[in-house]
Design brief:
The protein is of the alpha+beta class and about 80 residues long. The protein has three helices and four strands; from the N terminus they run H-H-H-E-E-E-E.
Length: about 80
Amino acid sequence: MNFQTRMKYVKIILLDLQTQPSRWTEIEKRMIVLSGSHSKFTSTMRWLIDNEYIIKMGQKGSRKPYRINSNKVMFNDNELVIITI
């Protein structure tokens, strides 16, 4: 997946999580409606988790929701996503 495509899917997921924390399957269902691909969703979520842009609110393997890491992700008034590398 190229950088521009990945950022498109990152924005979809982060905007979804901006309103409230959500579980993996909830995010996946909304993402697949927009992207149509389970593999794109999975690789994007793994990238967000590995780079700590989103954080699971419980232990690994639990069904706890994910939330945005506010230390690394911000939004401006125009829904522009700002991430810290």
